[in-house]
Amino acid sequence: MGKGGMSIDDHGEDKEENMAAWLLGINNLKIQPFKLPTLGPYDVRVRMKAVGICGSDVHYLKTLKCAHFIVKEPMVIGHECAGIIEEVGSQVKSFVPGDRVALEPGITCWRCDHCKQGRYNLCDDMKFFATPPVHGSLANQIVHPANLCFKLPDNVSLEEGAMCEPLSVGIHACRRANIGPEANVLVMGAGPIGLVTLLAARAFGAPKIVIVDVDDYRLSVAKSLGADDVVKVSTNIQDVAEDIVQIQKAMGAAINVTFDCAGFDKTMSTALGATQPGGKVCLVGMGHSEMTVPLSPAAAREVDVIGVFRYMNTWPLCLEFIRSGKIDVKPLITHRFGFSQKEVEEAFETSARGGNAIKVMFNL
Predict the structure, then answer these.
(1) Strands 65-66, 43-52: parallel, antiparallel or unpaired by DSSP?
(2) CATH code, 118
(3) Cα separation of 230 and 204, whole Å?
(4) For burial by CB atoms within 10 Å, which of 39, 69, 85, 245 has the most?
(5) What is the count of structural domains for the chain?
(6) Half-sphere exposure of residue 311, counting CA atoms within 13 Å on the CB side?
């Protein structure tokens, strides 16, 4: 278990009862007591102020699983978060109570080869907020390592701090694909991750970005966020060839890098076919754990396929992009809720419905 906390049944009492949103079963979320662990010398205790809902949170609520992770016992939900430090451990020198921070949600072992080589996002012993069996951060307070907290610039809000987590996925994807001023970018999917990937690609200097989706509203949002063009496609895999023609026409130039932010047979097949010979396809979304796609034709054109899993060393750059105005994540926050039993249920229902809900945020 990570630092997040433990069941209220553990020994000891807090001065103030800490409450959290517990996932107890399919479509069953309850606000219940959440006992915090003892503050370690290198830990901080943070009062949560902003927590966003991620697609993985919704998957857990609806099915008790996401990819190969399965919820087998009650778990506190949530991992996109920012808050205010209330207490620091005896060896913490970089923070004081009152500091506003964004939290990176994954605690790694720092001993395995992946960690030692700097690719700590691949750590096999990762303890990540709200990934079974580790508790998450939709709570009044949590305890977390100080080195995974990042002080917010004065002009960056707590909500923007919480948005560093999804934005980190887009930042990491752009780094993996070496996005720069010579890379025309196609983004498959205008959901939250597709949109932050669009914002990140623009901040990294991509000269032209086209984004694809099946939903008119999300495409309109993408256009308002700076996409050079948008293409509406169908869900029918028989339409891939026709879609590729539309996409390439919209780009009007070679597609150097495609980000598949949906992760379905059709989106990946389209990505592989639309990308220029010698280009790159970066698989960001994981809609399906298995896909059937035309790899051989893509291989014959030397299209590289790059995987993305979470992120590493992204929070400082996220905060700099937001501080400087190169990225504005505020338009992505479409719905806000408080932290009551009724509002928690309504917030997750809103996020699960999709539609005009992009990022649903809790203000605690």
Answers:
(1) unpaired
(2) 3.90.180.10
(3) 20
(4) 85
(5) 2
(6) 22
Cβ partners under 8 Å of residue 213, min gap 6:
189, 190, 191, 194, 219, 222, 230, 232, 233
Is residue 228 domain-shared with residue 346, that is, in the same domain?
no
Give the integer Cα–Cα distance in Å for 165 and 167: 5
119, two tokens: 């690719």
Q: 316 in helix, strand or coil?
A: helix
Contact by Cβ (8 Å): 103, 46? yes
The contacts of residue 282 (CB under 8 Å, 6+ apart) are 173, 176, 177, 257, 258, 259, 260, 305, 306, 307, 308
Q: Which amino acid is at 149?
A: C
Cα-based distances in Å from 93 to 42, 104, 105? 9, 18, 21
Look at residue 114 and give its three-state secondary structure: helix
Radius of gyration of the chain, Cα coordinates, nearest whole angstrom:
21
Question: Cα–Cα distances in Å, from 80 out to 25, 106, 328?
Answer: 21, 11, 17
1 is a domain residue: no
CA distance 32 to 18: 8
Domain limits at 210? 169-307
Residue of 260, 216, 217 whose CA lies nearest to 240: 260
Burial of 67 (0-12, 13-18, 19+ CB in 10 A): exposed
Q: What letter does residue 356 receive in the DSSP assignment?
A: T
168 within 8 A of 193, measured Cβ to Cβ? no
